[in-house]
Structures
1.
Amino acid sequence: MNRLIVIFWIIFLFFGDSVLSFCGFSSNIWNAGILLFSLICLLVNRRYFICCRELKKLFFVMFAYSVIKLYTDTGGGTRFAVLNIIGACIFYSAFPKKWYGDNLPLWRAMSIIIFFFFIGESGLAIFERLRGANLFGWTSEIVYTIEDYGLEEYRSTSFWGHPLSNAQIVSTIMTFILLSPLRIKYKMSLWLMGYLAILCFNTRSSMIGNALLLVAYLSYTTFRSGVALSSKLGVIAVGIIVSGLGYYLVFSAGWGGRLTNNELMDGSTMTRFDVWNLLDFLKGNVFWFGVDEDTFALYKSMAGLYATENFLIDWFFKFGVPFICIYIYLYVKLIKRLYVNYDKMSIMFTGGSFLMLSFTCNSLSTSFVPMAIYLMCIECFDPRYFQFFVDKKYIDYDHRALSYE
């Protein structure tokens, strides 16, 4: 069964929306199949599921509400919305939990795969930028090329199609890598590769957010006590090199052109502010139970919006405020359980960065994949088990103060 789960993990990561579209598959049907297989795995591995109280509560509350929502709301887009809000929980529940010793080899394999995925996802984005055209495209009908869009507007699409979705997935893994006990040369090489991919996705929030996180991380590791002077000098040198390379790529080579060639307050940015005008419609039954996709589209049109770019607003209107508050509370309880072996700084960096980037787009309300990968990253980079997942030659045992305490 474990071998089948590893194959399932590989398929999930590498067969993203753009790959599915290129192959002629419907992503909605594919994701439904992913969750169906996850439920089968959950039943097979139910002894691991039963022992996690926080996961059980979240699962059963969401399952019950989803049944009610599907029964009472037959409007367009309801099944898609339900699929996305319950998907991450179901997917995560499919995997045996690593705190049972016999499952460590499985999680070692899954951790190695996530590194290969990160390299493949980032490498493909960079390859597309150098090639000047998408390999798979945003969809089978939308393919970015530098010739058509220019250097400033060109965006890589890699495995997962929409640049914002790709950027959030890559950014999530980047932050966990940054806080991991990998040797500094491996850590910064992987982070730099991820940041190059972010420049290729050309998403301003991710470019700015990840740069700020790097500055915060370097400042934290440089000025904290207990870190050897040689390590501090090494971190400073790496910071200077990365900053210089980033400056050249953005301001001279034209990578991440939307950051420098667009007005800061353009249409995309204004949407993120104007979306709060939708709160005028959040009253009565809409507040308590939400609306179907067609009614929500009407509200957006009345507010002069073509998109929301805010997952929380999407959730409020699709499911109602009371359920979303319960949903968030139960997720926080689960995530707190998963973070049990992390120190406070690591939780702030990884959890805070994920939440920060999530609020700049609506990827959490349009796909369960970013949340699923976030939950799996917490497991794969768990500091208590990381040394069992990664070969010892890659871990910095002498200067662990640069990562986990």
2.
Amino acid sequence: MNKFNKLILSVGLILSFCAFGNTTDYIDIKALCEELKTSLSHIVHEENSTCLKTKKDTFKTNHTHSLIINRVNEDTEEIEKVQTDMSESDLVKLCEEFDSKKFKGGDLKVISIDMPSENKKGRWRISFTFGPFISFHNKLKMHIKNDDTDLTISELGPVQRTSHKYYEIFREGVGFLQFIDEPQNDITIEIVNDKMYFGVRYSHPKNLFQDIHDNPQINHHVGMVGTIGGHEVDEDDVNLRRYIHTISTSHGNTNINLIGGKIFNIAGNQDKNNLEFRLGGGAGVSFANGVSKYWALDENGNNNLKIKEHAGMRIYGFNITADSEVRYNFLRGKMSASLKARGVYTMIDGPIGDFHAKANLFSSQYGISVGYSPDILPSKSKREKKRIARIKKEDEDYRKEQELQLK
């Protein structure tokens, strides 16, 4: 097992152990049900409506009640008081269950219940992910053109440059954060709820269409028709290295995509730890600091290597993707670990080094990622707390005004 695989395995084990940090919610259900029965619930979201009092009553609006729960961490046994919401119909069902258990088991005062977390259905939240991937490319036909070249290459076999060695961050000569740039990797920023996601993905594939230095084994049997560096070529089975040293979009290669898709829950509670499947797609632009090196005849008839590199980042094409992902959310949805697979079509029609290139590149990419979802967007309960506080203040101001008028 190489060092990269050991690193991935270690990260997976750490994430697996972290997933066991569960919590349990408790509430004084006896006191809450007594309040419900005597109409003493202190928070109602709509005024002047008929509220549910008992099992036999009907209601026009399914009110929401604000509850204080005791959240117990099963590992540290720490207790945190958290405010959340429960619909009146769900609360009535819970009280009926409590009454039934109380009659069966004696004077029951507290029961354990599964309360929803802040990541409730329909709530949007922000998610960040990062991780490496590997690429596989289909052979293609590419047309390249400039002042001394007008050539079509068939059966061209692109390869990836993975650079996974840069994950060995303590290796001599490797920068501490160089792994963010050197390997092929993704960074995504998404807005997510329990049904769908939308976002932006930065992807950094490293494509080598021809590369004698790092991959001398490729493109030994290609077809070439046209002119390359002043050489007339019409051959069906030729070693490309006789004419071209490098065609690469490895340096700075970037895909910026708008992405979106559907989320399907496979197992677990979406408010807590769960396994989900994602199906979606994306579209965007591809640009790179392309490199070209090829042999060209000069004015004296000498064959010299003509090089163009470090010419700056330039758009060379557009791409669309079909995405699939299996994601495990843990630590109440704060963290995630994913396995990803996607198909990518890139329409190449732009500058790569000294050439203007045209081609249709079909690729498949497979990767892993870790994610973090901070609590940035305000939840419904937090918005309701502010609304309720404002209403209470207005009521208090009104009462004070009335008291002053009576005096």
3.
Amino acid sequence: MIRPYQDGADFNDVLKSHGSPAISEGFKYALAKHESITLKGYFGQDDLDTKLDEQDKANLAYIETYNLPQGTIVDAYRKNGIAGKLKLESTRKSLEMAVNNLSQYKDIFDAAQQWGYKGNEADIIKELMGMTQKESLVHINSLRNIFLANHFT
């Protein structure tokens, strides 16, 4: 991580000869990668093109369209590349299902908004992720019913 400038030198030699800024600079990339919560931050923009295949890039682009958190995907990539690819793909599939479920029950969602629900489609899609079609219907109906009841009270 911190490479000495000459053979036989070690971390302390770098610290003595170049000071703490050299050490900080050496750790900057590793810390940024460790703290990253997006794939672009984790891989770096340049490495993103080489680390992801075309399907992975399409999955990521779709996920970014809805501004979903990528932390769990990054964590999976930290474990290994296969785990990351699988998490990226499963996140896209879950997102697609949520989008389809909202589309199917759009009239109920519109009624919830009519009666006072302030969330937008992106908000409800995030809520619907991981839900089955039936669970999505129950959730959207509940929202509408809550706001409808509040309107009359």
